[in-house]
Amino acid sequence: MSPHPTDLVIGAHVDQADPIAEAQARQAPVVQMFLGDPQSYKGPVVAYAGGASALKAAAEEAGVGIYVHAPYVVNVATTNNRIRIPSRKLLQQHVDAAAEIGALGLVVHGGHVGKDDDPAKGFDNWRKAVEATDLKVPLLIENTAGGDNAMTRYLDRIRGVWDAIGAAEGADRVGFCLDTCHAHAGGNALETVVADVLAITGRIDLVHANDSRDDFDSGADRHANFGAGRIDPGLLAAVVRDAGAPVVCETPGGADAHVADFAWLRERIPA
Fold it and tell me: Which of 10, 94, 123, 153 could join 186 in a cystine, given CB atoms 3.0 to 4.6 angstroms apart?
């Protein structure tokens, strides 16, 4: 059954310094944030005053759910040991830090293999990563927009990852994050993407709702505010409706822009 607009759980990616204040500025029940530098292997940092325990307590008191986005540099699929091994370490560090703040889940990109690599090696490296990680919070693997060697751009690659991790201990703690901009730019038809993903994974745990500045199958990961991009408005709203999962907008701008995006989306999802 489609969620009623008033029941739609929708928030935004916000600055990590004070995610509770950011949530309140948007009247959002959920937010997403980084822990530290998303382009660094240095490890997570809790910027909130008082640290992890204070943030967890403040989020509980305010009734705000927090998702953490792992650094972009994480690539556990690669056959390059100098990237894969630090990526696994960094992934565990962020799982641990996310657990300390009481996060609802940790979002991570699917990564990629080299152009001369067999994709099966990447799939198996995902299995090994799941088995090697103590998943104290749900790990939500996100589809990505670009790269012919990506693990989660194309549906057949997503299937390969899911088939591989299905045999891993801890697989029940792995979910899926569907990004609308990435699906569009990655060449996946939004008319069927929810059904296609559910047929593969059996679940969609979170939606990253974003318009795209670029055309279908462009491979470009450039987000836009709703109605300002290249995705058909009806299709974008339908994906959110049909996925039936909490929504995080990673659209440009601050609180006012996000509130406008929330309203745009609610208007297009019928009761």
Answer: 153
